[in-house]
């Protein structure tokens, strides 16, 4: 176990006359001390969620409260507003009733996130919980915070120089995706053919890990990687446009699609359907978005990767409260010298939706098995 002791917070220069206009210029930025009702905030229990004793320890460390900034990267991926934000806010409130959360969403704009971080520092944040739009440019946010005695937790996406990092084993995510795709192809009787890879954003450090993990499997699989694309901003639209542009060259030999997350998977599947590809080849994904779970059930998507958000959000909250109170973070490993906690991802296919997504309360059967998916749910034993 690694511990990091926070020094006494340096006195912060408070700007006495900060105008409403200046704050608004930083984009979405709200202050709250309670969990929102956005989405299913009580869901995503996940194995390995923060224990009661850990919460009590964080509460003790965080006695006296303080301001904690939560800086999320975007809202196109449904998890952030539906799960991460409300779960983090609820965990902070449970551990530290006097803590105040300064919330911002950068809408996939690195410059906006920089402004939001600066606003949080000006408002007196003791800790920044940062899910970076751009891991490299976010190092400036870390440096600025440290210059003012403020701690930074890298949440979900790694940022060098942070005081703590909590996420999943991202190379393993890629390995699981690659292995799942190969297994699906072999189950369909395929031993050779062309694969296209639709990777994540080139500015996201996690995307590089997903890509490396997938390549470690696919490069020795016997299948040919015919074309590959790094998707700017994780944009489903850009993934779809690129897939459409490749169809004339790859359609005849295409047997599978590696898509780094569910958004890019949705874009790829739309392009394949629009291009008359029938039957659809196996397509991977990640994040267990509701639309992706429904595509898995209907057969349009082979698999997704489930990352239980509740334990991740609770771990970030526990350690943020500890740092805000001058305490220590608790970690189980490190990444590039940063104390870290890396949680375990899980492959989800049609066969284990009930044992994972539904069992953890991430989604209910009612959420999943809406009208057009009811028959497929029944056939898959999801009820």
From TrEMBL:
Residues 30-61 have a biased composition (Low complexity). GO terms for cellular component: outer membrane-bounded periplasmic space. InterPro entries: Bact_Solute-Bind_Prot2, Peripla_BP_I, SBP_2_dom. Gene3D superfamilies: 3.40.50.2300. One of its GO terms (molecular function) is carbohydrate binding. The keyword Signal applies. Residues 68-326 form the Periplasmic binding protein domain. Keywords: Signal. The keyword Signal applies. Residues 1-24 form the signal peptide. It is found in: Cell envelope. Residues 30-64 are annotated as: Disordered. Pfam families: Peripla_BP_4. SUPFAM superfamilies: Periplasmic binding protein-like I (SSF53822). This is Periplasmic binding protein/LacI transcriptional regulator. It comes from Nostocoides australiense Ben110.
